[in-house]
Design a protein that fits this description.
Length: 160
């Protein structure tokens, strides 16, 4: 009788070792990390930026138009790559020169349509960017300013 592991046994040992390592790492980190939640730490933006307006604010339509135009031209460029690779193989062109000419004409038409689309988008003014003026509504923090000052004093004393 052999005492060797099969391929599945080895994979099972790696899975068990991975799960064990993950559990040990999470347990160790829970013991070592500080757990001192406060109002500042639990705020939406811990970086200190004040919230302006609502999260459901309106965006300018130009964001979506530029994104759609970008995706359109990127997808069309993806079609250009395989053609360039195949067309670049000289052995294929020597084997059938007629197909090489047909492929060149097809890609010339495709590229012309791309340029025509770019000219249309440019003429319509979709590529010119006008920075919209933000419309922010006043926001009052539910946390009083005195509490912020108290927290800041406490941390200044710890750091100082």
């Amino acid at each position: 009788m052999k005492n060797e592991l099969s391929g599945f046994g080895t994979a099972l040992l790696f899975i068990i070792a991975g799960i064990f390592f993950m559990v040990v790492a999470l347990f160790t980190s829970s013991l070592l990390r500080p757990a001192r939640p406060n109002v500042e730490k639990l705020a939406t933006y811990e970086c200190g930026e004040d919230i302006q307006g609502y999260a459901w604010g309106r965006f300018n339509v130009r964001f979506y138009l530029v994104a759609l135009i970008f995706i359109l031209f990127e997808v069309e460029l993806i079609f250009l790559f395989p053609w360039a690779v195949v067309f670049g193989q000289k052995a294929l062109l020597k084997a059938s020169p007629t197909w090489g000419r047909i492929a060149l004409i097809e890609m010339t038409i495709f590229t012309f349509l791309l340029v025509l689309g770019l000219a249309y988008v440019w003429a319509k003014g979709y590529l010119s960017w006008v920075k919209p003026q933000p419309k922010t509504e006043p926001f009052e923090s539910p946390v009083p300013q005195q509490l912020y000052d108290k927290i800041n004093e406490k941390y200044v004393k710890k750091l100082g």
